[in-house]
Amino acid sequence: MAAFIAAPAASSPGRRPRPPVLCTATPAGVSPRAPRAPAPRCEGARLATGVAAAWPLGGGRAIGRHCRHRRLGGGALPAVAAAAAAAAGTPSLPPSPTSKTPAAAGAMAATAGGTPPPPPRRAPVVGSIPRPTSEDEQWLQRSRVKRDPANAARTKVVICGCGSFGTALATVLARNGYPVTLLARRPWVADEINTEHRNPKYLSEHVLPPNVVATTDAVAAFDGASLCVHAVPVQATRAFIMEHVDDYPPGLPILCTSKGLEVSSLWLMCELLPSLLGTERQYAFLSGPSFAKEVISGLPTAVVIAADARPFAHQLAAMLSSPTFKVFTSADPVGLEVAGAIKNVIAIAAGMSDGLGLGTNAMAALVTRGCSEMRRIALLKGASAVTLSGLSGVGDTFLTCFGPLSRNRTVGVRLGRGESLDAILASSRQIAEGVETARALERWLLTGSAAMEAGDAGGLTTAAARAAIRYPILLGVAAVLDGRLTPRDGLDALLAMPPRQED
Ligand SMILES: NC(=O)c1ccc[n+]([C@@H]2O[C@H](COP(=O)([O-])OP(=O)(O)OC[C@H]3O[C@@H](n4cnc5c(N)ncnc54)[C@H](O)[C@@H]3O)[C@@H](O)[C@H]2O)c1
Ligand SMILES: O=P(O)(O)OC[C@H](O)CO
User: Fold this and answer.
1) Binding site membership of 430 for ligand 1 (Cβ less than 6 Å)
2) Which of 156, 201, 259, 343 is catalytic?
3) What's the CA-to-centroid distance between 232 and ligand 1, angstroms?
4) Where do you find CATH 3.40.50.720 in the chain?
5) Which of 147, 310, 312, 371 keeps 20 to 30 A from 447, CA to CA?
6) How far is CA 44 from the centre of its chain?
7) Is the confidence at residue 304, as pLDDT, over 80?
8) Atom of ligand 2 at shortest distance to CA of 410?
């Protein structure tokens, strides 16, 4: 890991984006403090607004038509995203309630009851993800060659979130030779990791490699780090980052593993993190079928890392890859994240079906139709269909819906057997992200850009009526979690729906 990405060259409309500029300044690997190239221009946003303005962005996020401001309906610059989305005909998520920008406030007023925004004029663009270029392939080769033990030993990784997945990824990285520091919340947890080489709260039966250490001191944890792995649950992320925001070294790249939609903003992690930690750093997102327990046990696992800047994804893939941990790369963080969030909600539904004893036919139908709902939302958000059929899409959905280790599935099974949600959550120490994500999704589907979705939905005109037809499983899970429906009534309502053309 001797080189890292400084910034891509600006692209012009109609021209093929130029390859990212590489910074080879630091032999110790990813340097958060390396001098940066001039900020690129965000062509997508500039074209969309028709103004020759420029926004500073880090990494490869501003590459022509792949600009994240066009694809995302929120993020660090909601006004820009909304303008770009409107011009491109791509719906956007409502801005964060905490947003301070006047444009965002206006957009919120519109969502809250003013004039509704116009429906999109054309269908979202699908398949706009770039193909690997020869430069990408060269990078992949170079990255593989670079993972030599001496270099790894000088590349410190800090992991935020000392739970199951943080601990499992710490082990993967440490086995590859990287020194890892887990940022723990409790001193006794850090002490036991340092003295006994075990995480006493999560996966405690596993001995951690000696190059995994822990601390509760954030300044010490971040000091000298070349990469930060974010494994804090989605709903705790905002508070966690607000607490430590001054401790993050400028430019420290982030690899996020959390899956879900933040309830307060309705944002994905690829929108939330840059809004909290700024756009002048690289972000990548890891997902795919990967139970922490199997990862730490060294059982074969394959995941995907997505980043707007492909070389960054390649570098991270090289850091994490091993014979039992295969890392594919993608340039579609939005697709990966939408799928990662929604599969947890589908898994709750699958669990309910199992808990009710409805059999495998029902389960397969439910999961398949759940995937249709996932696909509809992902395409609305500008994701690639390829991502949805990949490891982070159906791959992780299969694992979570059918795998006995899934916490989300377990919540569903217990609901189906008649336990209350409060009792289930009170008796579980671990996070089931699908619970809060289901609530966020319901709000987004009823008030957000999905509610604006144009097209034929049986002549129904209200957003709620259209959403009920298009997203019966996702909305049904939210209603059950909220106590408005029993699992039995929810599944009966699904069965009572008239058959229609499969889509
Ligand atoms: N466990 C898995 O198999 C797995 C696999 C892939 C992805 N993920 C994702 O990784 C993320 C983390 O999941 P996990 O399995 O590690 O969860 P977990 O329940 O095992 O642990 C959560 C960790 O977050 C910490 N935490 C909670 N609130 C916090 C706060 N306010 N500030 C700081 N830390 C806080 C807890 O102390 C704990 O260390 C989730 O989004 C999950 O979907 C999990
Ligand atoms: O245990 P779950 O339901 O949170 O699922 C874990 C991971 O997301 C599997 O990839």
Assistant:
1) yes
2) 343
3) 5
4) 134-334
5) 371
6) 22
7) yes
8) 3
| Pocket flag, ligand 1, residue 291 (CB < 6 Å) | yes
Indicate whether 103 pLDDT > 60: no
H/E element holding 329?
A: strand 325-330
Using one digit for the tens of pLDDT, what is the confidence trace for 363-391?
999 999 999 999 999 999 999 999 999 99
Q: How far does the centroid of ligand 2 lie from the alpha carbon of residue 410, in Å?
A: 11
> For residue 364, which phi and psi values (nearest 5 degrees)?
-65, -40
Q: 349: phi > 0 → left, psi -120 to 50 → alpha, else beta; which?
A: alpha
For the chain, residues classed under CATH 1.10.1040.10 are 348-496
pLDDT tens-digit series, residues 398-451: 999 999 999 999 999 999 999 999 999 999 988 999 999 999 999 999 886 555
CA-CA distance, 382 to 268, in Å (whole number)?
13
- SS3 percent helix, strand, coil of the chain, rounded to 5, is 50, 10, 40
Q: Which residue has the higher pLDDT, 280 or 454?
A: 280
Ligand 2 mean position to 424 CA, how many Å? 17
Q: From edge to edge, which strands make up the β-sheet containing 283-287?
A: 212-215, 180-183, 156-160, 225-230, 254-256, 283-287, 301-306, 325-330
Q: Which of 202, 291, 394, 428 to mutate to test the pocket of ligand 2 (most atoms within 8 A of CB)?
A: 291
Quote the tokens at residue 20: 């990212």
Q: What is the mean pLDDT of the chain?
A: 77
Q: Using the predicted structure, report yes or no on whether residue 324 has a pLDDT greater than 60.
A: yes
pTM of the model: 0.76
Give ligand 2 pocket residues (Cβ under 6 A): 259, 289-291, 344, 347, 396, 399-400, 406-409
- State residue 498's pLDDT score: 86
CATH class of segment(s) 348-496: mainly alpha
343 is catalytic: yes
* CATH number among 3.30.565.10, 3.40.50.720, 3.90.550.10, 1.10.10.10, domain 134-334: 3.40.50.720
Tell me the average pLDDT across 251-271: 97
For the CA of 408, the closest atom of ligand 2 is 3
Task: Establish whether residue 434 lines the binding site of ligand 1, counting it when its CB lies within 6 angstroms of any ligand atom.
Answer: no
Element (H, E) at 467: helix 463-470
ipTM, two decimals? 0.98
467, pLDDT greater than 90: no
